Amino acid sequence: MLERLTKCPLCKSGRFLNSQEIKDYAVSKETFIICKCRSCGLKFTNPRPTAETIGPYYDFPEYYSHEDKVSNFTQLIYQKVRKYSVNQKVKLINRLVPHKGKILDYGCGTAEFLLAANNDTWKVTGIEPNEKARKLGNSKLADQVFESLDEIKAGKQFEVITLFHVLEHVHSLRKTVKKLIKHLKSTGYIIIAVPNYKSFDAKKYGNEWAGWDVPRHLYHFNESALNAFEDIFKLELVEKIPMVFDSYYVSLLSEGYRKPSQNVLAKYLKAFSSGYQSNQLAVKNQANHSSNIFIFKKR
User: Which of 46, 49, 194, 272 has its CA 20 to 30 A from that of 264?
Assistant: First the structure.
């Protein structure tokens, strides 16, 4: 079942137009319409599966964030990069909050990041709606991963709340962000990582760019849309950090979508070249990496 939005899910403007049609290459092979808000710049999948019917669209073996096992070379690379990225994330939160404290990771997957933070003496809590991933997370963290934000006590607050490549999947965008902010200490940080549809690799691959990932990605952000968070949610954007590995991984998936029959070596070489070029152009222009981390504080 599909639901049709009549207002922008971020700024609530009714001023949006159909932007493009994107195929779900990973699972259903269906085509979905993406609209663009003329007020805040957000793109969003519309119509989209409801929260109750989207589950089957996540049911494919290449959805690696719900898995710990390694079954192919691409997944091996993914796991190696994830391990490095986890360490970088822990360094980031330690830089922001040297005294450490409590952290909530919303959409924590198999809880690799929370496990590393816990080992570094942070008090950790995770939210993960996927049952399989949540069970794996709880096997590592003694039942500190919950299915829903509603299971967190109303008065509990955190020094850091993170959403790493999660916000684009959340059906209730505004409601979820507002609920998370209520759990954020007045001096705390909310960290949001999302793909960037203005990046070089997005422009290069066009409708075959893996970052669209419809219909699992309900929203498609650019910097303008993230800047709108300041006014909409009374936040202050304090820092933006590029995620340089994302351009390589997204390019690899995009190459597979563009030309499924090409040999593996050619696909990896083209993906490396595309990812490198995307990062170089982003550095040169000081903007538009494939994905970015946005760090906000309460005003």
Answer: 194
